[in-house]
Design brief:
single chain, alpha/beta, TIM Barrel, two-stranded antiparallel ribbon, 13 helices, 10 strands, 49% helix, binds glyceraldehyde-3-phosphate, binds 1,3-dihydroxyacetonephosphate, binds zinc ion
């Protein structure tokens, strides 16, 4: 069942975080749904601009509709990840998305607000919620390169003004993470002081953490042992993710970890089975392994086991 992102956030806020998983193909969709049913977790399925043009947005949307039928117990929201204004408007008009993210964080403050507000006005007219971004993550964002040195954490005071003036429903905050497999060096970690302060000045307002992959070290070692080259890859610790989820970080974005599972499964499979050229045996292994990864991640986020409680909450809210 496709539900509003807002309701998922209301149910989760301060208790657990909802996993927001990026998908690009059928195998990821199947693994994601299976993993969330196995762990009895609500979730957000998110589609980036790049994913929308990888095959065709209509193919992905149709596959998600089909997954909804194949897994009738699933409860999830459909979200556009890192949209520009044009992509947001397209998703809003389609009527399929629960929420969109407008990423104008590279623009000056007032321009970010103006763009976000235009998207909010169009989205709210259709009952769709909007995630905006304030501050800049280190590393590489879609279409936007921000060097580690220039990484700018979200200013809680600015966040209050931003939310008030833009009308956005959730805020992607720069709290020390970055996209991809190389997040931290040395003793860097999450800026819990920023999370605490934003939760204080914006009570019960959902924060979103981008760049939340844990980059599991066993995964990296297996990839490297099977011919990969990912020296020094490092992610956000699971303890930090679980802690953030109880502090008002209500949406945890994960893409890189899924890519690592895909990479490990395919590298190992073809190394161990050099005679094989069939896509289905390895595709099946990937779906199983990805489902296992998702179920384990939902345990960390605290969303595991929440499915029936969310169903009840939504039923009561609808009256
Ligand atoms: O934050 C970006 C996501 O990881 C999506 O990546 O734009 O390559 O699909 P992508
Ligand atoms: P990771 O690169 O850490 O998986 O972050 C994904 C993300 O933020 C998608 O918007
Ligand atoms: Zn992101």
């Amino acid at each position: 069942m496709i539900v509003s992102t807002k309701m998922l956030f209301e149910h989760a806020y301060g208790k657990y975080a909802v996993g927001a998983y990026n998908i690009n193909n059928a195998e990821q969709i199947m693994g994601l749904f299976r993993g969330c049913i196995d762990s009895q977790a609500p979730f957000i399925i998110q589609i980036s601009k790049g994913a929308r043009s990888y095959t065709d947005k209509r193919l992905l949307e149709a596959m998600i509709r089909a997954a909804d039928e194949i897994f009738p117990k699933a409860i999830f929201a459909v979200h556009l990840d890192h949209g520009d204004e044009e992509a947001c408007m397209d998703c809003i008009a389609s009527g399929f998305y629960s929420s969109v993210m407008i990423d104008a964080s590279a623009k000056p403050f007032d321009e970010n607000i103006a763009i976000t507000k235009r998207v909010v006005d169009a989205a709210h007219a259709k009952g769709i919620s909007v995630e905006a971004e304030l501050g800049q993550l280190g590393g590489v964002e879609e279409h936007v390169s921000v060097s580690e040195a220039d990484a700018k954490l979200t200013d809680p005071k600015q966040a209050v003004e931003f939310v008030k003036r833009s009308g956005c429903d959730s805020l992607a905050c720069a709290i020390g993470t970055s996209h991809g497999a190389y997040k931290f060096s040395g003793t860097q970690g999450l800026h819990f002081e920023v999370i605490t302060e934003i939760a204080r000045v914006l009570p019960r307002f959902p924060m979103v953490m981008h760049g939340s992959s844990s980059v599991p070290q066993d995964e990296v070692q297996r990839i490297n042992a099977a011919g990969g080259k990912l020296p020094g890859a490092k992610g956000v610790s699971e303890e930090d993710i679980a802690k953030a989820g109880k502090m008002g970080v209500t949406k945890i974005n994960i893409d890189t970890d899924g890519r690592l599972v895909w990479c490990r499964v395919h590298r190992e499979h073809f190394m161990q089975n050099p005679e094989n050229f069939d896509l289905r045996p390895v595709g099946k292994i990937f779906m199983n392994e990805y489902a296992k990864y998702i179920a384990g991640k939902n345990q960390i986020l605290g969303s595991a086991g929440q499915l029936e409680s969310v169903r009840e909450y939504i039923k009561n809210a609808k009256g």
